């Protein structure tokens, strides 16, 4: 079956348009993904800096870990839920303080409990 010249041209133009649209879709998707990742990274950096300043101003002194307890100056950070709740409220983030690989304070609640310790969180 022979196609008319006009039909061949229409098919060719449509094919070019579809390829062009697909390429644009891929490029736009890539740029949006990069933008979202950059925004999320910058927000995380800014929130970490805010939390660091907040803790330094509120609790003067050096960090030290002794017998499974983490101190900032003379303040025990283990189970310091007021601190993580305040930072989480100000930033809108999930906040967890670790000592090594052990969660010692968090604003995360699972079934009304704060999951502390080295065990991984259940998803």
From TrEMBL:
The record's section on Pfam families has: sCache_3_3
Intracellular or extracellular location(s) = Cell membrane
Its membrane topology, per UniProt? Multi-pass membrane protein
One CC-aspect GO term: plasma membrane
- Membrane spanning stretches: 9-28
SUPFAM superfamilies given in the database record: Sensory domain-like (SSF103190)
Q: Which domain of life is it from?
A: Bacteria
**Does the keyword field hold Transmembrane helix?**
yes
Name the keywords, alphabetized: Cell membrane, Membrane, Transmembrane, Transmembrane helix
Q: Which InterPro entries match?
A: sCache_3, Sensor-like_sf
Instruction: List residues of the Single cache domain.
Output: 76-118
Protein's name according to its UniProt entry: Methyl-accepting chemotaxis protein
Q: Which organism is it from?
A: Halalkalibacterium halodurans (strain ATCC BAA-125 / DSM 18197 / FERM 7344 / JCM 9153 / C-125) (Bacillus halodurans)
